[in-house]
Design goal:
Pathway: Protein modification; protein sumoylation. Belongs to the NSE2 family. One of its GO terms (cellular component) is Smc5-Smc6 complex. The protein has five helices and five strands; from the N terminus they run H-H-H-E-E-H-E-E-E-H. By secondary structure, it is mainly alpha-helical. The chain folds into two domains: 2-54, no CATH class; 69-125, Zinc/RING finger domain, C3HC4 (zinc finger) (Herpes Virus-1), CATH 3.30.40.10.
Length: 126
């Protein structure tokens, strides 16, 4: 019952709010539209551009390009194998993930090969 009340209040808020008055919203809409139009010209969907913008091939520890990427099983963040192993060995009971804002503890057992990043890196080298 309480969710129905909340949903009704939320729907009323959305219908009574003019989001175009917010400058950041307007700038966001303009950016998405320009990306979408640019990608139509190249025959790609906007999803491809957003994915490309998010992928970082640099190790967050050394700031060097990754060659042998692994990811943390708990948080899914990707690191260069040698640098994260060296970091974990300093604190064997667990090291906090080096990504800003992530508070997951990592141990050697938490690391797994990041096959998607390996594939992405191999495609970038071609």
């Amino acid at each position: 019952m309480q969710f129905k009340v909340f949903d009704a209040m939320y729907e009323e808020y959305l219908s009574n709010t003019n989001f175009t008055e917010f400058s950041k919203y307007s700038k966001f809409v303009e950016a998405v539209q320009s990306l979408s139009q640019a990608n139509v010209a190249f025959g790609a969907g906007i999803e491809a551009v957003i994915t490309e913008a998010i992928v970082s091939t640099f190790d967050p520890i050394t700031k060097q390009p990754m060659v042998d990427p692994v990811k943390g099983a708990k948080c899914g963040h990707t690191y260069e194998r040698s640098s994260i192993i060296e970091l974990i060995k300093r604190k064997p009971k667990g090291t906090r993930c080096p990504y800003v804002g992530c508070h997951e503890k990592l141990t050697l057992r938490d690391l797994q090969d990041d096959e998607q990043m390996k594939l992405y890196l191999s495609q970038q080298r071609k």
